[in-house]
Specification:
- The chain has helices at residues 3-22, 26-43, 50-57, 105-117, 181-194; strands at residues 67-73, 81-85, 92-93, 96-98, 119-132, 143-155, 165-169.
- The chain is α+β, with helices and mostly antiparallel strands and 197 residues long.
- The protein has 2 domains: 3-57, no CATH class; 67-194, Nucleoside Triphosphate Pyrophosphohydrolase.
- Helix 1 packs antiparallel against helix 2 (26-43) and helix 2 packs across helix 3.
- It is elongated and about 65 Å long.
């Protein structure tokens, strides 16, 4: 799918689900159901049926908004960045993940860092917010990714089932990045350089 078509489908999906959440008029609900069905039909592939997609879509209730994730910028004294190699796609990235309900972004990121690297960390300044739009990197939804400066307070580097390789690396040498993590790494490194004492 092109980025334009993906963005269109994601917007139609959001309109349909938001309409179904708020509308009590039978005719309007029928129209929103039809929009949801059309979206699912277009998203569907050989491995995913439209009905399975509709079932998944319906798990989103309330007003439909972009998904939110967060990522950690952590450096050692040499300016090498804490990076993980992901088991889901074999690509490199910062410790990161989608935000869970009932957790603040900072609490969420502390958990992600612990789960993915074995380290305990303080989450500091918000460095930037990155937007990933539907169709970019082969994903169907809008995503806002919060990038925080973090500092290690304890723990020990440990791999996990999500992250088979974990360590401090010169990010300039990494070529196979997950999503937009190369841009996040560049922004984080700029921050590190500007705060060296």
């Amino acid at each position: 799918m092109t980025i334009g078509l993906s963005a269109l489908l994601d917007e139609i999906r959001a309109i349909a689900l938001t309409g179904l959440h708020y509308s009590h008029d039978d005719y309007d609900r029928e129209r929103y159901e039809r929009l949801l069905q059309l979206t699912a039909n277009e998203y569907a592939s050989e491995s995913v049926s439209p009905q399975d997609l509709i079932t998944a879509f319906r798990k989103d209730i309330g007003y439909i908004t972009p998904k939110v994730g967060c990522s950690a910028a952590i450096f050692n004294e040499e300016g090498h960045m804490l990076l993980v190699k992901r088991s889901d796609n074999g690509k490199w990235g910062l410790p990161a993940g989608f935000c869970e309900v009932n957790q603040t972004p900072r609490d969420n990121l502390k958990r992600e860092i612990r789960e993915e690297t074995g380290l305990e960390a303080d989450v500091g300044e918000l460095l930037d917010v990155f937007a990933v739009l539907p169709g970019q990197y082969g994903q169907p939804h809008s995503l806002y990714a919060l990038l925080f400066a973090c500092s290690v307070t304890g723990g020990a580097l440990t791999t996990s089932h999500e992250t088979p390789i974990v360590g401090y690396f010169d990010h300039h040498l990494i070529t196979d990045w997950h999503f937009d993590h190369q841009q996040r790494a560049a922004r984080a490194y700029h921050y590190w350089l500007s705060n060296r004492t």
